[in-house]
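Working notes for the structural subgroup meeting. M.R. asked for a predicted model of this chain before we commit to crystallization trials. I am recording the input and output together here so anyone reviewing the notebook later can reproduce the run.

Input as submitted:
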Amino acid sequence: MKLLRLLSLLSLFFSLAPYVTADQQDKKSIKALIVTGGCCHNYHFQTGAITEVISKVSDVNWTVLHEGGIGKEYQSSLYDDPNWAKPFDIVIHNECFAKVTDETFVNKVVAGHRETGIPGMVIHCAMHTYREVNADGWREFQGVTSIKHEHKSNYPVKVVKPKHPVMKGMPSDWVTPKDELYIIQKLWPHATVLAISVSERDGREHPVIWVNEYFGTRVFGTTYGHADETFADPVFMNLLVQGFLWAVGKD
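Returned structure, recorded in C-alpha cell form:
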C-alpha cells in the first residue's frame, strides 16, 4: 500500500515537473506580441523573419496575432480587453489597417500602451494604420505622423545619430532594397530621429528610423519594411534586432 502511494506521488511529481520548468523559463524569457495582418504586404514572411533573427540573440516567448486577411478595415477583438497588453514585455506593430474609422477602437489600442507602459516597435504600414480617423494618440505613441508615401526605390539612408544603441552595426552607406519612402508630416516632441532619407521627388528629408519616449516607455520605429527583399536584407534585420533590444532595455 505504501509502495503504491509512493508511486502515485512520484507520478504526480513528474507530471507537474515540466510545467514548473516551463513557468520558470517563461519568467526569464521576453514575452513579445506581434500584431500583424492586413493589406499590401507578405506578413507571413515578415513575421518569420522577425522571430527568427531576434530569437538568435535573445530568449523570446513569441505570441503572433495575425488577423484581418488582406483587408484594410479590420478591428481585432484583442483590444476589447483594457488589459490586453499586460501579459507582454513588448508589442511589435506590423499591421496595415488604413481604413479603420472607429476612433473609440483606436483609443483602446493606444490605452493598452499608455496605461501599462509596455514598450513597442512600429514598422512600415503601422504608421498608415488608422490614418483615416482622428488618431493623434496613435501617432503620438509612434512618434511620427504619416498618411502617404512616395514611389518605391533604392533609398540611401543617412545616419544622423551614429552613437545611439539602435544604430549599432548600421553602415553609413546603406541603401535600401526597393522600398517606399513615407512622407513624415510631423515629428512628435519626444521622438528622436536616428536616420533620414531624401525624397527623389522634391529633395525633402524624411525620418526613416527613430526612437520615441511615450509616457515613460520606449518605442522604436522605422518606415521601411515594405517588401520581402527588405526583410531579407541583413542590415535591415540587424536594425530590427537593435531596435528590439533597445525597446526592452537590453541595449
